[in-house]
Amino acid sequence: xxxxxxxxxxxxxxxxxAATAHLPYLSQTSKYQITALLNSSVASAEAAIxxxxxxxTTKAYGTPADLAADPDIDLVVCSVRVDRHFPxxxxxxxxxxxxxxxxxxxxxxxxxxxxxxxxxxAKSRGIRTLVGLQGRQSPILSKxxxxxxxxxxxxxxxxxxxxxxxxxxxxxxxxxxxxxDEKTGGNMxxxxxxxxxxxxxxxxxx
Length: 206
Hints:
The protein is an alpha/beta fold. It contains 7 helices and 6 strands. Strands 3-2-1-4-5-6 form a 6-stranded parallel β-sheet, sandwiched between helices.
């Protein structure tokens, strides 16, 4: 079977979530092939291709329109900050004729209106979608779910959850300062709590 061809958004030459969470698997599997990168500029995409030793045939793009025009993309992986999801994915959904699926990091968009528009666009174009609430695939959580579903520990009547985060405090890292602006859509509730909710809601079959 031919590999699924990926248009990767947000894989920078320096350290990034895309490079840490996605690239290690995508670079060694025969199921997927990174065929194009979309970054803030062509130069940035070219630098990432070189830094991560991607094939010389990997195409470098600097605008969503250029990626949308590429006929060799099956799956788009969007791994950039949340407030950039909508302005990147909307033109892709509107213009692309080859994209069959989109994987987008969570949160999907900066606000409900943007998220609903992206979802409606994808549905109208017949494009499959997936958001990055990957914690539910954890082997540990699967084991916990099995124990709960089996009834071995009885009925769970209440749960207390404590969450610790490295940001959103009185002081923060300079590179995360943009999250202090509520318009970006990234905060303790939309990111950390939602990931936690995505994990815990999976555990009870009721």
